[in-house]
Structure formats: structure tokens, C-alpha cells
Design a protein that fits this description.
Number of strands: 11
Strand content: over 45%
Radius of gyration: 13 Å
Structural class: mainly beta
Distance between the termini: 40 Å
Oligomer: single chain
Order of helices and strands: EEEEEEEEEEE
Largest sheet: 7 strands, mixed
Number of helices: 0
Low-confidence stretches: none
Mean pLDDT: 97
Length: 115
């Protein structure tokens, strides 16, 4: 039922930009909090950004000023605009949704930042 499908990952040089998308289905997208997380090999999953149903946003200190989270409720789609990418941005990026007592995840999309 609940489906989250990420897209937009790829390889980019340090300082470059990339925009990720997450297509959601199976729930009322507009009423739930959404977020982006990332995990590098051998590292723990970390929060990148969150956006509430009313548009309030939260960013990890490491990405503030460089990343922008947004949502298009008419399209049931979540976005993450990533600018001024750094090497530490290399990771698998996951879209997540909080529905009642459960957390749902997409399959992830790989982002690789090289010098």
C-alpha cells in the first residue's frame, strides 16, 4: 500500500548540485510529516531534513544553507535540492514518512560526490 520511490541520484563533483525526488502513494500525503535521511557505507543513518504538513522545515547543521526540502502536495512528491555538495554528501539517500506509529522508507537513491 504505502510506497515511497526515490529518484534523481547520481554522481556529481564537489560544489555541484543535485535534486532528489520522492514519489509517494498509498496514504494522504498532504497530512503527514516527510523527511530525507542518508547513510554512508559503515556509517549510521542520519537525518538530513524534515518537513511537516504545514511546511515547517528542519535541517541537520551539516546541510543548513546548502540543502532545501520542499513538497508538492498536488503531486504527492517530496524534493531535496542539494547545492554546494561536499564529499561527505556521498551516501544512499532515503525518503521517509511518519504514519501514525509506523515509519515507512523508500529503497533509496545513491549520491556520489567526487573531487
Amino acid at each position: 500500500q504505502v510506497q515511497l520511490v526515490e529518484s534523481g541520484g547520481g554522481s556529481v563533483q564537489t560544489g555541484g548540485s543535485l535534486k532528489l525526488s520522492c514519489a509517494a502513494s498509498g496514504f494522504i500525503f498532504s497530512t503527514h510529516r516527510m523527511g530525507w535521511y542518508r547513510q554512508a557505507p559503515g556509517k549510521e543513518r542520519e537525518l538530513v531534513s524534515l518537513i511537516t504538513s504545514d511546511g515547517t522545515t528542519i535541517y541537520a547543521d551539516s546541510v543548513k544553507g546548502r540543502f532545501t526540502i520542499s513538497r508538492d502536495n498536488a503531486k504527492d512528491t517530496l524534493y531535496l535540492q542539494m547545492n554546494s555538495l561536499l564529499a561527505e554528501g556521498t551516501a544512499e539517500y532515503y525518503c521517509a514518512a511518519r504514519l501514525f506509529s509506523s515509519e515507512y522508507w523508500g529503497q533509496g537513491t545513491q549520491v556520489t560526490v567526487s573531487s
